[in-house]
Amino acid sequence: MDSPYKADILKGKVALLTGGGSGIGFEIAKQFGNHGASIAIMGRRQQVLDSAVSVLQSLGIQAVGFVGDVRKKDDANRTVESTFQHFGRLDILVNGAAGNFLVSSEDLSPNGFKTVMDIDSVGTFTMCHEALKYLKKDGLGKKSSEGGGIILNISATLHYTASWYQIHVSAAKAAVDAITRNLALEWATDYDIKVNGIAPGPIGNTTGMSNLVPKQIDIGAMDLIMPLFKLGEKWDIAMAALYLASNAGKYVNGTTLVVDGGLWLSRPRYLPKDVVKQFSTGLPNSKL
Ligand code: HXC
């Protein structure tokens, strides 16, 4: 699908994306690149990174991949430093790396819980921490006339209520949202860095979605509870990311933008509309 934005809205910017080799992270990387940014992607698997980088380069995007695990501080440090060495600056950090699997709370080991917390929450904080000296106003590689950079944390809506078999991810994403708000307060004030999040709903053709909705489940049945009656596309998330990363979102700080078609608000309709009309006095002379 074509982008509604001008092709140069991220011209001259350098973006580093964890989990940028596949899924939603890769789509954001591609769209940022299509809109002028140079791209560094970080992930655990060399092969996945290599093929993602060659796709990006085939689109004319300046791209490089760094193997690393956000759970390891040294990997985080090396990736941020290598990005700076390669491109000479860093403007945008997208924390997309995440772990996920379906498991009931009683079957989840404390180490399984900790593993997802370590990737999603501690990993996000570690990357932010390592990137601070480059992202901040007057940071390394920045001209004095420039403002600070942007952080985007990929979250979820699971923890707004409660989610079956997702206690670890719900807890981890709740912490991510807290990181978003606290850094937005501290680092916008002190360093002119804007920190926002995106909470995707169910997005088609992603590992997260295949993990959460096993093949045995008829996805068509979800139409019954989803207001927009369809899965989202990776493109939807990338367009939201472009808004927040570009000047269009210059006054947005500390928010997590929900991009889920309204799914998290939905609940079963407990009375059919024609039944409720029998109880309702309605508007006078209403033709509805
Ligand atoms: C139960 C599990 C498990 C599973 C891992 N564990 N997988 N427990 N069911 N399916 C437990 C292990 O038993 C172990 O605890 C601990 O977690 C660490 O497991 P390891 O396999 O040693 O860890 P590791 O190799 O580091 O891999 C963990 C992982 C992996 C990264 C979470 O499972 C993974 O790669 N998952 C896929 C990543 C993914 O889905 N990415 C997309 C995210 S989308 P014990 O006690 O046995 O030592 C997303 C969207 C969220 O997050 C919301 C959308 C709406």
Task: Please write out the topology.
Layout: E1 14-18, H1 23-34, E2 38-43, H2 46-58, E3 63-67, H3 73-87, E4 92-95, H4 110-135, E5 150-154, H5 167-191, E6 194-200, H6 207-212, H7 234-245, E7 256-259, H8 273-279
Hexanoyl-coenzyme A binds at residues 98-101, 103, 108-109, 111-112, 115-116, 119, 156, 158, 169, 202, 207-208, 211.
Brief sketch in words of this structure:
The chain has 288 residues and is α/β, with parallel strands linked by helices. A seven-stranded parallel β-sheet has the order 3-2-1-4-5-6-7, with helices on both faces.
Q: Can you describe this structure?
A:
This protein has 288 residues and is α/β, with parallel strands linked by helices. It has a single domain, classed as 3-Layer(aba) Sandwich (Rossmann fold), CATH 3.40.50. Helices cover 40% and strands 12% of the residues. It has eight helices and seven strands; from the N terminus they run E-H-E-H-E-H-E-H-E-H-E-H-H-E-H. A seven-stranded parallel beta sheet has the order 3-2-1-4-5-6-7, with helices on both faces. The mean pLDDT is 93.
